[in-house]
Amino acid sequence: MSTHRVKLGKRLLSLVKSRELVGLRLRKKEQLDELASEVAIPDMGGFDVVRLKAEGKDTDAALDEVRQREEVELGTHVYHVPGSDRALVPTGEIFIIFAEGVGEEEQQLALDEFRLELVERRGPLRLIARVTPESPNPVKVAQRLQAASLVLHAEPDMEALPDEYDFSLPPDPLIPWQWPLRNTGLLPDSAQRARPGADARVLDAWQRLGHTGSSDITIAVIDTGFDLAHPDLQAKVVKPWNLRTRSPFIPQGDPRYVHGTPVASIALGAPNGNGMVGAAPQARFMPVHGPTFGLRTTEEMFRYCADEGADIIVCSWGTTDPAFALSPLKEEAIAYAARKGRKGKGCVVLFAVGNENLEYINYYAAHPDVIAVAASTSSDRHAPYSNRGREVWVCAPSSGEWPVLAARASWDQGNPHMAGEFRYYYDGISRGDRYKHFGGTSAACPLVAGVCALILSANPELTARQVKEILRDTADKIGDPSEYFNGHSPRYGYGRVNADRAVAEALRRRDAAAPAEPAIPPAGRVTMKGQGLFRFSVAPQPAKGWAVQTGVFGSYANVLIQAARLRKMFDVDVVVHIAELNGKTVYRIMAGPFDKKKKALQLLERMRAQGVDGLLRDLSALG
Questions:
Q1: Region of residue 166 (left: phi > 0; alpha: psi -120 to 50; beta: else)
Q2: How far is CA 511 from CA 6, 29, 108, 362, 453, in A?
Q3: How far does the chain reach from its first CA to its final CA, in angstroms?
């Protein structure tokens, strides 16, 4: 079915015509049963959204037939936004705001061009118009008006059922303890206080999206110690890989390996009503077990993730030991994933900067294609253990003043130097036997990975480089402003990650990049690009006589095309009036001129007979 790009409110949206539903406004409501096989939405703003009794006809033909019935006051197509089943019903009215300086005559020309009738004036530049039986449908009219140089805004009135605020947080009971997602300043079960707002704005991002991310996004976690039976991970696993055995079997139960479970949970813990959730709780989980610093293993791990469909790769490990710094082959392995993954858009690769309190970062995190993640605290301060350097890209909330809640493997023995619940919890208070306190840049890195998954949920067409740019451009500057040089701090990078702003930017880029539907030129207006050769002469025109104005253009190329069209169709001269409108040069195109008003009226009738509308102009008023 046809799709239209129309600005509704502040966003440019794609509207898809429903294949089955139409909107009917009836004079005799009791006859609805005769027309409809099903009422999908009754009485929505005066419309009933229905499926017609088509009797073998397609929806368009059935609607055209129903419109002719006496009891039908208005019949219209129903639209929806791709990915949503919310019905949008155009009422036939269009709210129009003209540019400064556009007079009533030009406004009327725009209305006449689309056979609109004036409903109400809201001021010298604002009005409400309504389509007539001779008009195109209101969505097409609004689309064309939005492209007109004289119009600042044209929005079709669309009936739709309002949200009932049915988006709610996942029911997992430990969310109040997950202060990196939203920090209110209060830490449950603790007298410790945090700084309100010292968080990653994840809950705000969910609210903006209207959901908690896409299940089409896969996050690969390269680490050791994955408890694949953990309730927050078990239902999410796809394409696991063991680098040590070259098999899909991930070892379970080894007390030496417990790190991967909390890392994965912070990125993508499931919203299952038990325990905690990750920043991108709908994302799929690709566990890759057993990283080492070997050349072949490094190549294998990144190629496996890229070739098997990972969108994001999380590495909360690395080294600051020069003996294991990146070699050219290792650099190429990371670059392969970051540039060739996701069918050429690149996997988003993240590394923790490391916890050694050094003035340089994990060598792997310093790779130019990597997002290097540092740690900030619950008070928006630099976590003192977090390494520093010019390659730090962003920071994210983690331990330093108060730890982060995460999942723990069933075989995790906790801190061997502590007793009881102190083995797992900083304050000795249990939050469940499958969870623990966690921290370091190992916790900050997967949190940013989850934010990247939300960014790709909002706009899956983004490249890895664009995701990295969005994180940079939307991060919140924290700490002392004096330590930022050209927007960058060696401690905080470009700032603390802000999921809400990042998702908003991803949505903005999605809407800006969407291809506009080719406009169908309305009568009397040319919207094609000016191309070709023209013979054109210039001579002054006295400000007297009469002409037929057919349009006002901001592009001189359109002036030439329209002039050639009018001369060919009607064998008349064309004059151009050049004026300033809202600080820009515009061109009025007029056919003629004529000494007598009668001749101009005769031309106007000829033009209208051939589908070209216009407005009679007294040239003396333009002198």
A1: alpha
A2: 11, 40, 31, 37, 18
A3: 49
pLDDT in tens, 10-27: 677 788 888 889 999 888
- Which range has the worst mean pLDDT, 165-179, 275-289, 359-373, 573-587? 573-587
pLDDT surpassing 70 at residue 582: no
Count each helix (H run) and each strand (E run) in the chain, helices first: 13, 22
Whose CA is closest to 64, among 32, 24, 93, 18? 24
The ranges of the chain annotated as CATH 3.30.70.1070 are: 546-622
C-alpha 386, offset from chain centre: 32
Report how far residue 181's alpha carbon sits from residue 197's, in angstroms, rounded to the nearest whole number.
Answer: 10
Q: How confident is the model at residue 519 (pLDDT cuts 50, 70, 90)?
A: very low
Second CATH level (architecture) for the domain 546-622: 2-Layer Sandwich (3.30)
Side chain identity, residue 494: Y
Residues of the chain with CATH 3.40.50.200: 179-224+255-512
pLDDT given for residue 163 in this prediction: 53
**Residues 274-308: pLDDT tens digits?**
899 999 999 999 999 999 999 999 999 999 999 99
- Contact between residue 129 and residue 97 where contact means Cβ atoms under 8 Å apart: no
34 phi and psi, to 5 degrees? Answer: -75, -25
Cβ atoms of 379 and 165 closer than 8 Å = no
8-state DSSP, 227:
-
Please, what CATH class does the domain formed by 179-224+255-512 belong to?
alpha beta
Alpha-carbon distance 203 to 211, whole Å?
A: 10
Q: How many CA atoms within 13 Å lie on the side-chain side of 164?
A: 3
Cα distance between residue 201 and residue 179, in whole Å: 10
d(CA 547, CA 545): 7
Q: At what angle do helices 441-458 and 464-474 cross, to 10 degrees?
A: 110
Taking alpha carbons only, the member of 60, 71, 81, 77 closest to residue 30 is 71
Taken in order 61, 64, 68, 70, is the CA torsion positive or negative?
positive
**Residue 139 identity (one-letter amino acid):** V
* pLDDT value at residue 198: 95
| CA nearest to 217, candidates 470, 499, 457, 506 | 457
The per-residue pLDDT for 349 is: 98
The alpha-helical segments, DSSP class H, found in 571-596 are: none
pLDDT digit string, tens, across residues 451-470: 999 999 999 999 999 999 99
The alpha-helical segments, DSSP class H, found in 218-277 are 260-268
Q: What is the DSSP letter of 327?
A: P
Overall average pLDDT of the 102-112 stretch = 87
> What number is the average pLDDT over the span 203-227?
94
